């Protein structure tokens, strides 16, 4: 005997992985082990784990910073946005499409 748990491997390959018998029997033990994953590897990040991490490491509000501030001095607002004719490049002496001679 080879010492492999064939009934367990067949349940895992044919049942859990939903492999066809042809694909299952065509795999090497190393390929099947790779498909089943390493039980010692870290578990994937799911909603429950994300909530657990959020409780363990809560975000703290920054003192003296606008809540819309990304930390780089920009707030995500475009100068002149919301005003008729306003938008990016809305500076005195410059009109829409005027690149300032660049």
Mean pLDDT: 75
Q: What is the helical fraction, as a range of percent?
A: 25-40%
The number of distinct β-strands equals 0
Radius of gyration: 29 Å
| Low-confidence runs of at least 5 consecutive residues | none
Order of helices and strands: HHHH
Strand content: under 5%
Task: Give the N-to-C terminal Cα separation.
Answer: 80 Å
Number of helices: 4
Principal-axis shape equals: elongated
Describe the model.
The chain has 102 residues and is mostly helical. It has a domain at 7-37. The chain is 34% helix and 0% strand. The protein has helices at residues 6-16, 21-26, 29-36, 47-56. The protein is elongated, with a radius of gyration of 29 Å. The protein starts with 5 loop residues before the first helix and ends in a 46-residue tail after the last helix. The model has no long low-confidence stretch (mean pLDDT 75).
């Amino acid at each position: 005997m080879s010492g492999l748990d064939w009934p367990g491997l067949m349940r895992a390959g044919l049942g859990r992985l939903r492999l066809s018998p042809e694909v299952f029997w065509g795999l090497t033990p190393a390929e099947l082990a790779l498909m089943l994953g390493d039980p010692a590897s870290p578990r994937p990040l799911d909603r429950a784990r994300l909530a657990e991490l959020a409780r363990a490491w809560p975000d703290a509000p920054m003192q003296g910073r606008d809540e819309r501030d990304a930390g780089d001095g920009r707030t995500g607002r475009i100068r002149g946005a919301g005003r008729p004719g306003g938008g990016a490049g809305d500076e005195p002496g410059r009109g829409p499409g005027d690149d300032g001679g660049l």
